[in-house]
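no rush on this but wanted to send it before i forget. theres a chain ive been looking at and ive put its sequence and its fold in token form underneath. i want to understand how the tokens follow from the sequence so walk me through it. thanks a lot i owe you, the record is right below:
>
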Amino acid sequence: MPDSPLGRTLVIANPTAHSGRGEDGARFAQEFLQSYASATRGFEVVRTQGPADATRIARGARGFDTILALGGDGVIHEVVCGLMALPREARPQLGVIPLGSGNDYARTLGMARNDVEAALAQLVRGRACHVEVGRVNGTPFMQTLSFGLDAAIALDTTDRRATGTSQEGEALFVTSALRILSNAREGFPVRASFDREKTQDLSTIIFAVQVGPSYGGGFKICPNADPTDGLLDVCYNVKLPALPRLMALLGLARLGRHTGSSVVRLRRCRSLTLDFDREPPCQADGEKVCGTHFDVSVVPDALDVIFPS
């Protein structure tokens, strides 16, 4: 495979991903790379042992051209955090072997999902592109940062996956959304400033900051988000809709058709500052974030990421 972009490669695999299928995926990746020696200039496969382990491994990676993250969006997030701790010139390029429930970053990149063989075939024929990474209070995120009820839904799906639910992807997101939205009564007051513009007073129930288009296993909350444009895409509510309309918007968001509603507004920015009256539910790539003050920014061209050709 003379055109493989991988070079010397480190595979960071979460063996518990996708209800334990990550271990099978790690074994297959090792066998694949052994069988196709020309795909790399040598490789290692390392399995994570627990939370934040992928961050530690990626941060300590030396002498590698590529890090492949095998697992769901959680392990990809950890790998990105580790890479972003390195100087830009020392960061290996990133490839993803998506094996998870939501797989939203894989959707952004156009990678085969939950099919290790197909994803590896894409990677060895792929091409690296510069992509942006978001930051919230100094912590990187590669796909999604959200506040309010949509964050509560995302955190609920994370909790349910941890307790062994059989649901995944869109079905998991929808059932969590129905339960949480049915109890929604009010928004979270916040003062928001985009790109240091005049502060706006909002009562937010939906506030999503996106690098890529989707969250929740394919809901196209910011359908035109482009991870290579150096901008964050934001979708937020400007009105507090009644519950039936809120449920209808959820259905429209599945296909990105909510964007014409007078309830929501979409815009792009390089930075924003949010100050909440009380601590809202907040998540970055499925990881809980605490606080009432949030400084959010984009790091353009932060990583080289392999896309399918």
